[in-house]
Specification:
By secondary structure, the chain is of the alpha+beta class. Helices cover 35% and strands 20% of the residues. The strands form 3 sheets. The protein has a 4-stranded mixed beta sheet with strand order 1-4-5-6. Strands 7-8-10-9 form a 4-stranded antiparallel beta sheet, covered by helices on one side. Strands 2-3 form a two-stranded antiparallel sheet. It binds pyridoxal-5'-phosphate.
Length: 219
């Protein structure tokens, strides 16, 4: 970090990197550093936003106010959309026409996003994500008694199970798919769980039960 750094972009929970939540104080430290250097702090909330981590935004687990943040994916419940939010001060740097995009601001995607946000609010899906997410976390932690599992971590409904060294993670993903559970690989050996925000505890039990069957068979 030095005066030549214009900005820092981070996720509050690294998604593809392995579902790695920022350690306590990390984002606050970044905010102090960027402020001291006159650099921007931008948060990528594309995976963590809209309740995924048990708060509306991942950054809400901290006291940090970023200069800008990005959202997409869940924002319109599957309809293609991307959004950038920024401070009033930064917005002045982007006058009309300077930040163009063919389909930017399109009314259909925007209407869908508003409908999604209404549903999220009406059904308290953020609170639901926090409570069912904690439940999923406990269920995944219990799988650490199997030798094939070396760790469990995450926030809300963004979770990972770290597989032990020597386990063929790709084969586990394929076996899980065969058995009806869709997970992706994140980082080197982490199975990423990112279920719909409407998932119930019963459905978590069913899914984790399948995971347990597949993982329990591994050496
Ligand atoms: C998917 C994703 C992106 C890319 O989003 P687009 O809307 O496809 O540009 C960026 N960051 C993270 C963390 C993502 O998961």
């Amino acid at each position: 970090m030095g005066p030549d750094v214009a900005g820092v972009i981070v996720e509050t929970v690294q998604g593809e990197g392995g579902v790695l939540p920022a350690p306590a104080g990390f984002l606050e430290g970044l905010r102090k550093l960027t402020e001291a250097q006159g650099a921007l702090l931008m948060i990528d909330e594309i995976q963590t936003g809209v309740g995924r981590t048990g708060k509306f935004l991942g950054i809400h687990h901290s006291t940090v106010e970023p200069d800008a943040l990005s959202m997409a994916k869940a924002l319109a419940g599957g309809v293609p959309i991307g959004a950038m939010l920024c401070s009033e001060k930064l917005a002045q740097a982007l006058p009309p026409g300077s930040h163009g995009s063919t389909f930017g601001g399109n009314p259909l995607a925007s209407a869908v996003a508003l409908a999604v946000l209404d549903e999220v609010e009406k059904r308290d899906l953020v609170g639901h994500s926090a409570s069912v997410g904690a439940y999923l976390g406990e269920r995944l932690e219990r799988l650490m008694r199997y030798p094939a599992v070396s760790g469990a971590r995450g926030q809300g409904l963004l979770r990972a199970l770290e597989l032990s060294e020597g386990v063929d993670a790709r084969a586990v993903v394929a076996d899980l798919r065969e058995a009806g559970v869709l997970v992706t690989l994140a980082g080197q050996r982490a199975l990423r769980f990112s279920p719909p925000l409407i998932i119930t505890e019963e459905q978590v039990d069913e899914g984790v039960g399948v995971v347990e069957q597949v993982i329990g068979k591994l050496k």
